[in-house]
């Protein structure tokens, strides 16, 4: 269960399912996702542990077929890599974004998440834009808050700058790189205009 949740492989498999034109790949992906959902939703019983033992066998059976589809379509393989890369690179940083009751910070997190949703890239990649927005906001705020102890105009301007950069139609690769994990939230929060 931990492996399914920490790698977020379900999102990657679902992204491949949506992009695939091969009926066999889509049906196998659907059945795999359903079985994973049963594992995650069901209470811990002996029946679940039996399903866990069966699951590695079914995932190893499905993986070569998914790889065959990926090799036949270069788009699918790149999307699979993009979908799995961010989940691995973001997992350690997710717990660092604590919830906040500060209305300015909450609004900034919402605006950053909305900027990450621009262009629907987050769907194909399978990234959690809400958590990314929170993480970026946390990484922007930490240095400023330590220095100034508030969310003043300097903080708001830095958030606005990041939002404008994420929404920039002339630089869609920036948003994709943030979503994929090529640019981690802490690095994006500290980036300059260059």
What can you tell me about this protein's structure?
The protein is mainly alpha-helical and 194 residues long. The chain folds into 2 domains: 2-83, no CATH class; 97-190, no CATH class. The chain is 77% helix and 0% strand. The chain is built from 11 helices and no strands. It has helices at residues 2-7, 9-19, 23-41, 46-72, 74-90, 103-117, 121-125, 129-148, 153-167, 172-180, 185-190. The longest helix is centred in the N-terminal third of the chain and has 27 residues, at 46-72. Its main location: nucleus. Residues 1-43 form the TFIIS N-terminal domain. It comes from Podargus strigoides.
Report the sheet-strand fraction: under 5%
Total strands: 0
What is the N-to-C order of secondary-structure elements (H for helix, E for strand)?
Answer: HHHHHHHHHHH
Residue share in helix: over 70%
Region (Disordered): 39-105
Subcellular location: Nucleus
Organism: Podargus strigoides
Domain TFIIS N-terminal: 1-43
Which tags fit this structure?
194 residues; mainly alpha; 11 helices; 0% strand; TCEA1 protein; TFIIS_cen_dom
Topology:
Layout: H1 2-7, H2 9-19, H3 23-41, H4 46-72, H5 74-90, H6 103-117, H7 121-125, H8 129-148, H9 153-167, H10 172-180, H11 185-190
Helix pairs in contact: 2-3, 2-5, 3-4, 4-5, 6-8, 6-9, 8-9
């Amino acid at each position: 269960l931990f492996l399914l949740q920490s790698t977020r492989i379900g999102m990657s498999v679902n992204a491949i399912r949506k992009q695939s034109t091969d009926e066999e790949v889509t049906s196998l992906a659907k059945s795999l996702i359903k079985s994973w959902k049963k594992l995650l939703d069901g209470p811990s019983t002996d029946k679940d542990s039996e399903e866990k033992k069966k699951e590695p066998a079914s995932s190893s059976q499905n993986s070569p077929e998914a790889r065959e589809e990926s090799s036949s379509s270069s788009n699918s393989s790149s999307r699979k890599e993009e979908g799995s890369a961010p989940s691995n690179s973001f997992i350690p940083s997710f717990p660092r974004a604590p919830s906040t009751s500060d209305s300015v910070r909450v609004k900034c997190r919402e605006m950053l998440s909305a900027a990450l949703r621009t262009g629907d890239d987050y769907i194909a990649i399978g990234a959690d834009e809400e958590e990314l927005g929170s993480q970026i906001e946390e990484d922007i705020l930490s240095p400023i808050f330590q220095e100034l102890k508030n969310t003043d105009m300097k903080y708001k301007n830095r958030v606005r700058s990041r939002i404008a950069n994420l929404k920039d139609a002339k630089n869609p690769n920036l948003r994709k790189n943030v979503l994929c994990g090529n640019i981690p939230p802490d690095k994006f929060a500290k980036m300059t205009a260059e």
